C-alpha cells in the first residue's frame, strides 16, 4: 500500500537532509525525484530562524563566545532550515576537515568556518581547499601560523595531503615539506598575539577578537619547489591545483561523500556509484554539487541495497526527531540541553575529538550512547502535544476506517508516517502485539492529550525505539 | 558477580574548570603568596594548618579530619611539561595520558579493558553523570553513564509503571531477535541487550543498600551517594567516575571556590563515613584531580588559567602525607607567571594502576614513570 515514490523520496531526504515529515515529503513529491534532487542541490532562501530573534532569547548566542551556545546556534539553523542539504554538506565538511574548539577557544571563528562550508561546500573542490587553507580557524588548529619561511611547520601541509585530499601512500615525505613551504606566509592578522590569546584561553581584556586571514609576502618562501613531480615557484594555490587533479584526490572525495550520503559499507554495487562520481569529478571541474547529483541519481542510491545502509549520526538522530516532532520552531530554553544530548551520544558540534573527525558508522553504537539515542527520540516523538505528532495523529485518523484503527493499521500507520520505515518481520510482530494491548483504537472525537492520542504516542515511542530507526 | 571477596575499586572525582590549587592547599607560610594574591587569598588566620608552611582551605574541614587519620595523600605540583591552559585540551591530556599527541583512548578505558578483556561485566566501569568522559572511552569497552540511579535505563520519562514494563518487554524482544542476519543489526541487538541488562542490575543497587549517613543535597554528594550504593551492591564495578564544577573561577572566586570545596569535602567526608560504616574503608580509593591550577597572581576578583596544580588520593589503604614538592612561588621558578609542576600526573596513575588495581601501568599511561609510595603495603 505504501507508495514506492514516497519510499524513495523519504530515503533521499534522510540522506540529503534530516528526514522529512509527511507534509515535506508531499511537497518534494510534487517536484518529482529529479526535481527534488535539483531543489536540494540548489539552496535558495533557507528561511532560517532569524538572528535577531535568537539574540532576543539567548544572550550567549549573541556573543557566540562559548561552545555550548555556539553549538546550539548551529542546531537552530539545522532545525529551521528549508534547505537541509546546505546544512548536511556543512556537517559533512565539519567532520572531514575536523576543527575543534579545544585548541581555538574561539567559537565564532568555528562558526565562520561552517559558514564557509555552506558557501563553498558544494562548489569546486579546488576552491574549497583554497578557502580552507585561508580559514583562520584551520590555520590555528593546524599551526599554519607557525609555518614560516626558513622554518616550516608541517602540520597543515601533512594533513592537507593525508586527511583532506589524497590520503596516505600517494605522496612522499619530501612532498609534504614542499607543500608546507608553499603555505608559508598563510597566516592570520596579528597572528602572534592571537596565538597567545588562544593558548591562554584568555578573554581579557577585550573578549574574543575576530580572526581574519592575512598573507605575509615577506614570510612566504618564494623559492622553487618540486611537488608530485612538478617544479615551479609554487604558492599555496598552485599546490592545491596539483592536488585537485590527482586521481587519488577524486577517489578520496568520492569515497567520503559516498560513505556520508549513501552507505557505511562499500559493496561491489556501491563501488560502481563511486566510479561514476569520480568521472563526474573530472568532467565537471571538481564540482561537488555535480558529484552529489551523480550519486543521488545512481542506480545504487535508488536501490534497496542503499536503503537503511547507514547508522544515523547523533546530529542526524537529534535534529531529525526534532524536525519530525515540529519542536523548537521558536527560541526555547531547552536548546542547549538538546545540543548537549548530541555530545552525550558522542558527537558534540564544533568539538570533533581529533583532526580525524568522528568515527562514524557502527562506531556510533555503544551501550551508553544507545540509551541516550533511544531515550531522546522516544521522548521527542511520543509527546502528543508536539505539532508534528499532532499532524501524525490527524493523518492516522484521516486514513482510518471511520476513525477506527485496528492494531495492525496503527503499527503500520506509525511506521509509514515516521518514514516510511521498513522493519523486519520479527520487529513488526512485536509492534503489532504492542498495538493490540488495548484492542482497536478509536480516534473519533480525539482531544489533545486524551487516552486515544496517548496510545498513538506510545506506539510512536516504540517505533522510535526499534533497531531499524537507528539507521538512515 | 558471585565472588564474596570484595575487589579493589577506584573512585574518581574530577574537578572541572581548573581548581585553584593555591587557595586549596594554601602556602600560608610564604609572604610571596600574599604578595601575589592581594585580594583573592585565604588569610592566615582562616587557613586550617596542616604543616608549618601549608594549610587547607577553610572549607576542607572533613578532609582535614581524614588527614588526621592518615588517610589523605596530597600530591603537590602535579602536571606535565609545556602546560596547556585550554580546559578542553588539558583535560584531554589528563584523560588520555598523552601530553604530546592527541590521544584516542582513555586511561581508565584501557584499565577497564585489561580488567575485563572479554567485556563480561557491562558494569566494570560506570560514569555517574551524562555523557562519557574521555578517560573512560575505549573502543570495545562498554561503560554505563548513569545520570540518575533512581531512573536509570530506557524510557525514564514514562510515568505509568505498567506501561513502562510493557514497553521494556517489547524493546527486549525487538533487540533479541536471531543473530547473524546483518552485522550492524547484530551489534545493535547486543548493545541494546547490554544496556537493558546493565539497567536491570543497577536498578537493584539502591534496594541492596542502607546507611545512616546522610548525603548533602548538592549534585556531587548525590552522585557520590549513587557511587556508594553501586559499590556496596557488589556488582563487580571497579571504576566509578564523577565530576563536579565549575572550578573556572575567573571572578567572584572567594565565594564560589569556598562553596565548591564545601561540597567536595562534604561528599568525600560522607563517603568515607559510609565506607567505615560498611567496613569497606580499605576497599576503595578516591582520586581527586583537576585539569590545571591557576595563575599565581589574582586578577582582582578571581584567577585565570595556570598550571602546576595538585591532586588528592584518599582512602583507608592510603599512606597519608605530603607527596611531591610544593612548587616554588619565586619568580625565577615560574613559567610565564604560573607554578611549575615537578611531578608528572602519570606517576600517580602508575601508582594507582600498579599498586591498587594490580595492572601493568606502562601500556596504559604510555611509558614508565617513577611512582610514589601512596599505598600501604598490601597483605
Question: How is this structure best described in words?
Answer:
The complex is a heterodimer of chains A (472) and B (379). Chain A is mostly helical and 472 residues long. Chain A has 25 helices and six strands. Chain A has helices at residues 4-16, 22-41, 51-57, 60-63, 67-80, 84-96, 101-104, 107-120, 125-133, 136-141, 155-162, 173-182, 191-200, 236-244, 247-261, 268-283, 288-296, 299-302, 314-325, 335-344, 367-382, 387-398, 407-417, 425-435, 451-464, and strands spanning 186-188, 213-215, 225-227, 230-232, 404-405, 441-442. In chain A, strands 1-2 form a two-stranded antiparallel ribbon. Chain B is of the alpha/beta class and 379 residues long. Chain B has two domains: 9-147 and 215-365, 3-Layer(aba) Sandwich (Alkaline Phosphatase, subunit A); 153-204, no CATH class. In chain B, the strands form two sheets. In chain B, strands 1, 5, 6, 7, 8, 9, 10, 11 and 12 form a nine-stranded mixed β-sheet that branches. In chain B, β3 and β4 form a beta hairpin. The relative contact order of chain B is 0.22. The mean pLDDT of chain B is 91. At the A-B interface, α7, α13, α20, α21 and α24 of A face α3, α5 and α6 of B.
Q: Stretches of chain A where pLDDT falls below 50 for ≥5 residues?
A: none
Tell me the number of structural domains of chain B: 2
Helix content of chain A: 55-70%
Could you give the count of β-strands of chain A?
6
CATH-defined architecture of the largest domain in chain B: 3-Layer(aba) Sandwich
Catalogue the unreliable spans of chain B: none
Shape estimate of chain A? globular
Total number of β-strand segments of chain B?
12
Strand content of chain A: under 5%
Main sheet summary of chain B? 9 strands, mixed
Q: What's the CATH first level of the largest domain in chain B?
A: Alpha Beta
Shape of chain B: globular
**Mean pLDDT of chain A, rounded to whole units?**
94
Q: Give helix and strand order of chain B, one letter per element, not per position.
A: EEHEEHEHHEEHHHEHEEEEHH
In terms of quaternary structure, what is this?
Answer: heterodimer
- Specify Rg of chain B, calculated over alpha carbons: 22 Å
Task: State the helix count of chain A.
Answer: 25
Amino acid at each position: 500500500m505504501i507508495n514506492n515514490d514516497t519510499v524513495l523520496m523519504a530515503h533521499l531526504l534522510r540522506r540529503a537532509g534530516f528526514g522529512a515529515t509527511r507534509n515535506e515529503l508531499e511537497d518534494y513529491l510534487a517536484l518529482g525525484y529529479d526535481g527534488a534532487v535539483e531543489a536540494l542541490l540548489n539552496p535558495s532562501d533557507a528561511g532560517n530562524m532569524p538572528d535577531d530573534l535568537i539574540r532576543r532569547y539567548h544572550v550567549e548566542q549573541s556573543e557566540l563566545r562559548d561552545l555550548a551556545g555556539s553549538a546550539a546556534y548551529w542546531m537552530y539553523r539545522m532545525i529551521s532550515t528549508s534547505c537541509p542539504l546546505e546544512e548536511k554538506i556543512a556537517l559533512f565538511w565539519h567532520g572531514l576537515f575536523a576543527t575543534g574548539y579545544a585548541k581555538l577557544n574561539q567559537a565564532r571563528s568555528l562558526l565562520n568556518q561552517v559558514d564557509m562550508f555552506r558557501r563553498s561546500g558544494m562548489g569546486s573542490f579546488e576552491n574549497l581547499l583554497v578557502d580552507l587553507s585561508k580559514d583562520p580557524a584551520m590555520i590555528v588548529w593546524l599551526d599554519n601560523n607557525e609555518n614560516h619561511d626558513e622554518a616550516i611547520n608541517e602540520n597543515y601541509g601533512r594533513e592537507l595531503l593525508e586527511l583532506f585530499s589524497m590520503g596516505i601512500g600517494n605522496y612522499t615525505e619530501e612532498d609534504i615539506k614542499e607543500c608546507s613551504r608553499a603555505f608559508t606566509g598563510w597566516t592570520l592578522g596579528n597572528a602572534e598575539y592571537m596565538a597567545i590569546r588562544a593558548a591562554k584561553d584568555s578573554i581579557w581584556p577585550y573578549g574574543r577578537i575576530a580572526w581574519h586571514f592575512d598573507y605575509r609576502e615577506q614570510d612566504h618562501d618564494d623559492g622553487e619547489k618540486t611537488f608530485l613531480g612538478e617544479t615551479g615557484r609554487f604558492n599555496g594555490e598552485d599546490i592545491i591545483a596539483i592536488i585537485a587533479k590527482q586521481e587519488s584526490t577524486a577517489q578520496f572525495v568520492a569515497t567520503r561523500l559516498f560513505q556520508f550520503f549513501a552507505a557505511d559499507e562499500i559493496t561491489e554495487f556501491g563501488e560502481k556509484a563511486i566510479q561514476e562520481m569520480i568521472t563526474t569529478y573530472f568532467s565537471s571541474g571538481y564540482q561537488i554539487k555535480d558529484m552529489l547529483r551523480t550519486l543521488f541519481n545512481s542506480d545504487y542510491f535508488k536501490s534497496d541495497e542503499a536503503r537503511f545502509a547507514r547508522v544515523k549520526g547523533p546530529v542526524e538522530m537529534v535534529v531529525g526527531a526534532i524536525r519530525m516532532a515540529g519542536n523548537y520552531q521558536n527560541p526555547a530554553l531547552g536548546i542547549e540541553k538538546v545540543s548537549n544530548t548530541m555530545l552525550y551520544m558522542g558527537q558534540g558540534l564544533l568539538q570533533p575529538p581529533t583532526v580525524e573527525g568522528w568515527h562514524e558508522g557502527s562506531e556510533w553504537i555503544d551501550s551508553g550512547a544507545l540509551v541516550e539515542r533511544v531515550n531522546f527520540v522516544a521522548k521527542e516523538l511520543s509527546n502528543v502535544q508536539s505539532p508534528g505528532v499532532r499532524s501524525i495523529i490527524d493523518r492516522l485518523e484521516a486514513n482510518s476506517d471511520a476513525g477506527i484503527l485496528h492494531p495492525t493499521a496503527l503499527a503500520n500507520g506509525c511506521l509509514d508516517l515516521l518514514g516510511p520505515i521498513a522493519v523486519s518481520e520479527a520487529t513488526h510482530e512485536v509492534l503489532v502485539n504492542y498495538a493490540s494491548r488495548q484492542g482497536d483504537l478509536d480516534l473519533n472525537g480525539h482531544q489533545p492529550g486524551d487516552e486515544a492520542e496517548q496510545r498513538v504516542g506510545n506506539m510512536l515511542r516504540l517505533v522510535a525505539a526499534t533497531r531499524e530507526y537507528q539507521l538512515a | 558477580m558471585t565472588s564474596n571477596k570484595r575487589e579493589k575499586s577506584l573512585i574518581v572525582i574530577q574537578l572541572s574548570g581548573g581548581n585553584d590549587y593555591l587557595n586549596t592547599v594554601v602556602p600560608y607560610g610564604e609572604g610571596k603568596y600574599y604578595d601575589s594574591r592581594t585580594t583573592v587569598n585565604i588569610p592566615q588566620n582562616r587557613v586550617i594548618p596542616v604543616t608549618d608552611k601549608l594549610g587547607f582551605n577553610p572549607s576542607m574541614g572533613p578532609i582535614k579530619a581524614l588527614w588526621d587519620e592518615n588517610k589523605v595523600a596530597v600530591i603537590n605540583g602535579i602536571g606535565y611539561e609545556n602546560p596547556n591552559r585550554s580546559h578542553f585540551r588539558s583535560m584531554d591530556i589528563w584523560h588520555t595520558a598523552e601530553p604530546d599527541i592527541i590521544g584516542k583512548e582513555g586511561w581508565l578505558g584501557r584499565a577497564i579493558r585489561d580488567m575485563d578483556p572479554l567485556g563480561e561485566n557491562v558494569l566494570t566501569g560506570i560514569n555517574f553523570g551524562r555523557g562519557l568522559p574521555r578517560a573512560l572511552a575505549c573502543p570495545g569497552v562498554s561503560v554505563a553513564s548513569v545520570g540518575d540511579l533512581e531512573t536509570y535505563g530506557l524510557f525514564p520519562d514514562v510515568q505509568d509503571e505498567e506501561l513502562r514494563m510493557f514497553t521494556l518487554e517489547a524493546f527486549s524482544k525487538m533487540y533479541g531477535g536471531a543473530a547473524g542476519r546483518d552485522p550492524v543489526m547484530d551489534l545493535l541487538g547486543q548493545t541494546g541487550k547490554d544496556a537493558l541488562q546493565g539497567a536491570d542490575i543497577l536498578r537493584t543497587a539502591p534496594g541492596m543498600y542502607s546507611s545512616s549517613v546522610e548525603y548533602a543535597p548538592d549534585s556531587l554528594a548525590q552522585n557520590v551517594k549513587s557511587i556508594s550504593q553501586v559499590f556496596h551492591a557488589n556488582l563487580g564495578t571497579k571504576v566509578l567516575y564523577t565530576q563536579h564544577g565549575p572550578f573556572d573561577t575567573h571572578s567572584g572566586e572567594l565565594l564560589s571556590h569556598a562553596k565548591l570545596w564545601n561540597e567536595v569535602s562534604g561528599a568525600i567526608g560522607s563517603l568515607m563515613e559510609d565506607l567505615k560504616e560498611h567496613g569497606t574503608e580499605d576497599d576503595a580509593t578516591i582520586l581527586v584531580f583537576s585539569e590545571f591550577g591557576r595563575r599565581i597572581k589574582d586578577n582582582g576578583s578571581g584567577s585565570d588559567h595556570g598550571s602546576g596544580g595538585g591532586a588528592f588520593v584518599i582512602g583507608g589503604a592510603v599512606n597519608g602525607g605530603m607527596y611531591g614538592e610544593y612548587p616554588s612561588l619565586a619568580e625565577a621558578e615560574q613559567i610565564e607567571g604560573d607554578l611549575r609542576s615537578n611531578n608528572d600526573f602519570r606517576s600517580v596513575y602508575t601508582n594507582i594502576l600498579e599498586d591498587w588495581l594490580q595492572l601493568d601501568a606502562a601500556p596504559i599511561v604510555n611509558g614508565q614513570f617513577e611512582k610514589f609510595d601512596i599505598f600501604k603495603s598490601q597483605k
